[in-house]
Amino acid sequence: MPDSFNDYCIDIGKEVVDSFSNAHNLDCITYLNSANPPKTCLKWHTIGKNDLINIVRSMKNSKSEDLFGLSNNVIKELAPALLDPLLYIINLIFQYNVFPECLKITKTIPIFKKGNKNCASNYRPISIVPVISKIIETCMKFQLFNHLNLNKIISSSQYGFRPNLSTTTAVESVISDILESFESKEYLGLTLVDLTKAFDSVCHQLLLCKLNYYGVEEPQLNLFKTYLTGRKQKVVINGNESSFQEI
């Protein structure tokens, strides 16, 4: 059962990608000509102890264990003893721009939705990445986000994954535009798109190309390359584990 569900998770993502695989052959720079390249390039800054303390404290309380048996709660409880070695490892990663292979493994747990319990499509896969990996990702995210903001790359219409913005503020903005058009007696069109397997179908080659265009050059770009490639997952059902499969 775990291996069958793992096969399903891997195959469904590939099927979605293959359905529009021609898009991956497009030159992304063609679509970026309207955006001026940034004047500065991303440079990693050394992570300080206070930075790491704030990141660990901001982690949500969770007992969910990764494949190493670690959870957010465990890391937060042991933080005083872990900060120095963890800080050393993170800054070493930024120095050499290589993401550790051992942290590119995911534990996937299927959560039943409804319908036939013997049908894999009736389960929602919940992926649990290593807690240490999440901390490193946060360090990367903050520095990349600061670079993008400094160079005014992120659109003001981008509501996802930005501080103080959410689906609620996005809806408020849409309603405001609708009311404004209504009062001005103007026509207004609204297009809503729901992407299937949106994150699973992101083309890594195009993503790296765009990052490079926006000032993430080598060797910093290599950290993103090694983060995205060679990732593996295994499915765990009632204590039974599947074999690893590359994502």
UniProtKB/TrEMBL annotation:
Domain Reverse transcriptase residue range list: 114-241
GO BP: any one term: DNA biosynthetic process
Protein name: Reverse transcriptase domain-containing protein
Species this protein is from: Graphocephala atropunctata
